[in-house]
């Protein structure tokens, strides 16, 4: 079942409203939640803290979209309202080739996954947007580096 750590721009909701919705979903029988993707661990962590304070006990799995193409990141921002940090866009801008841009995005996503897992996330959900290879590369890096 879906949840939105930064609020849902399309619905005009805040993180607090999304926590209220999550409480109702849990009461209705949801046994876990997968979040809209975020490129910010602190945003997800804050949302989980709010949810726990409101009585949410189900696992909340963070969503990650590997930012492997600047064009796609910018378009995704337009469609979802989920904003990438300037640091992500600057890192992607340093790439000389599409392959290098993908490697940078994979590293960003893997670092985010590791930070979330180290912070107590029960797992991560990778949004692929039909790009399996970068998602697999993220999984490989996380498998090699988590608790290494």
Tell me what you see in this structure.
GO terms for molecular function: FAD binding; methylenetetrahydrofolate reductase (NADH) activity. Its cofactor is FAD. Belongs to the methylenetetrahydrofolate reductase family. It comes from Trueperella bernardiae. It catalyses: (6S)-5-methyl-5,6,7,8-tetrahydrofolate + NAD(+) = (6R)-5,10-methylene-5,6,7,8-tetrahydrofolate + NADH + H(+). This protein is an alpha/beta fold and 148 residues long. The chain has one domain: TIM Barrel (Alpha-Beta Barrel), CATH 3.20.20.220. The chain is 54% helix and 9% strand. The protein has six helices and four strands. Strands 1-2-3-4 form a four-stranded parallel beta sheet. Strand 2, helix 2 and strand 3 form a beta-alpha-beta unit. Helix 4 runs antiparallel to helix 5 and helix 5 crosses helix 6. The longest helix is centred in the C-terminal third of the chain and has 21 residues. It is globular and about 50 Å long.
Number of domains: 1
The helix/strand order is EHEHEHHHEH
CATH level 1 name: Alpha Beta
**Subunit organisation of the chains:** single chain
**Major sheet strand order:** 1-2-3-4
Number of DSSP E strands: 4
State the helix count: 6
């Amino acid at each position: 079942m879906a949840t939105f750590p930064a609020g849902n721009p399309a619905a005009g909701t805040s993180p607090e409203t999304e926590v209220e919705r999550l409480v109702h979903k849990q009461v209705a029988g949801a046994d876990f939640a997968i979040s809209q993707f975020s490129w910010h661990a602190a945003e997800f962590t804050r949302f989980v803290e709010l949810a726990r304070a409101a009585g949410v006990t189900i696992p909340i799995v963070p969503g990650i979209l590997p930012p492997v193409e600047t064009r796609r990141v910018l378009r995704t921002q337009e469609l979802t309202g989920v904003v990438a940090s300037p640091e992500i866009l600057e890192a992607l801008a340093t790439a000389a080739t599409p392959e290098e841009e993908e490697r940078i995005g994979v590293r960003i996503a893997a670092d985010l996954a590791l930070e979330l897992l180290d912070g107590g996330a029960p797992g991560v959900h990778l949004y692929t947007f039909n790009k399996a290879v970068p998602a697999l590369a993220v999984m490989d890096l996380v498998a090699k580096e988590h608790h290494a």
